[in-house]
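Convert to structure. Protein one:
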Amino acid sequence: MMRIDVVTLFPEFFSAPLDVSIVGRARQAGIVAIHCSNPRDFTADAHRTVDDSPYGGGPGMVMKPEPLFETVRSLDLEEGTPVVVFTPQGRPLKQRIVRELAQSPRAVMICGRYEGIDERVRERLATHEISLGDFVLSGGELPALVLIDAIVRLLPGALGNEESPAEDSFSHGLLEHPQYTRPPVYEGMAVPDELVNGYHARVDRWRRKEALWRTYQRRPELLGSAELSDEDHELLAELMAERL
C-alpha cells in the first residue's frame, strides 16, 4: 500500500474528490491510503496563526515556517521520502515525475496558500517543486488532487485493465492515438476501417501511426525526447508524405 500525506489548511477540500472513481476504489481496496494534516493543529497561539506579513513589505501574507515544519515532523517520515511543494516556480508536472513518485511507498504534498510559503520550507523540506503550468491558483489543493489522481492510476490494481496506463498519452513520450467505440457510423462519421476489420497487427500499426501523427501536429516538441524506433521514423516519414 502506498501512503500519501497532504499538508493543507483545508482538509475538507479533499473529502468528496478522494471518495469517488479510481482513487475512491483504490482507497477502499487498500491500494493507497491518503491522510490530510492541518498546520493549524501545530500552532502554539490562541488564534492558531499560520501566516504573517512578508519581511521587506508587500501585499498579502506568507505561510509561517513553524506550523509547516512541525506538521511534516509529526508524520515521522523515513529518509528519502518525497516531499512535494506546489509553486509556479517549480518544474512542470510530467508523466516521468508521476512515475517516479508512484514508485515510492510514501509521499507528502504541501499545499501553500496566500502569497506562498516561507522559503525555508522549500530549502529544508521539499524534495520536489512542481508546477501545473504558467498560471496562478489560490492554493496547492487542486494541484495536489491532480497529482494524487495521476499517481494512483499507476499503482498496481488501481485500474481494471493493467495495460491502460501503458497506452496513455505521454507514457512513451507521445500523445495517445484516437479512440472510437460503437456505433461504427454516426451522423456520417465512420470508424476507421483498420479498427473495425483489422487484425491485431494492423490495429497496432494504425494506432502507432496516429499517435505519431497527432504528436507531430499538436505537440511536435515531444518527438525530440520520445522513445522512437527506426520503424517509428519510417512511419512518420510515410505520414508526412501522405498528409502534408
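Protein two, convert as well:
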Amino acid sequence: MNAPTRFRRLAVFCGSSLGHDPRFADAARELATLLAGSGIGVVYGGASCGLMGVLADAALAAGGEVIGVLPRSLQERELAHRGLTRLHIVDTMHERKAQMADLADGFVALPGGFGTLDEFCEVLTWAQLGIHAKPCGLLNVAGYYDPFLAQVEHAETTGLMLLIHRAMILDATEPGALLARLHQFRPAPTASKWAEQIYP
C-alpha cells in the first residue's frame, strides 16, 4: 500500500555516468519505481545517459511522470531523452537549476559528480537562506556520500555550520527510508542562516 503523499513531484539529481558500482543503478531504478508507484513525478536533468537515463527509464516503465530540464548545449550533443512526459530546453545551467527547483516539491541526490554536488548544495544553500522550505534528501547508496557527510559534520564541529543546518540533509541508505524521511520533514522555524541566534 502506498503512503499518502504531499509531493506532486521530486527533483532528482544524479550522475550522467553509471559509476563502477551496480548498486548505484539499482538504487536509481528502485527510487524511480517507488516514486511512480506513489504518484510522485520525477523532475531531473533530461539526459538519456548514465544514472539519469536509468532513473528516467525506470520511472516511465512504471507509468510515472518524468519531466526533464536540459540546457540547449547538451541537447545539441544528442544527450536528450526522447521519451519523456515533457522536456524543457533552457539556455543555461543556472536556468536549469532554477526551473527544476520551481517544478519540484523536494529534492533527492543519488550518486553523482560535480554537477550533482553543485545542484544539491545549491538547494541546501537556498534552504539555509530561507529561499525555500522544501526537503533535501541524500540517498547514500553503498556509503557513497559518507565522505561528504563527514565534511558536513566537520563544518558543524568547527563552527562554520549550525546543527540545524546539518539537520536539513535528510540522508538514508534505502529509497523507501529516504522517502519516509521526506514525508516527515517539517522546516525548522529558525533554519534561516540570518536568525538572530547566529548574529545577535
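The two ends are 48 Å apart (CA to CA). The helical segments are 22-37, 50-61, 72-75, 93-103, 114-128, 146-157, 163-166, 175-184.
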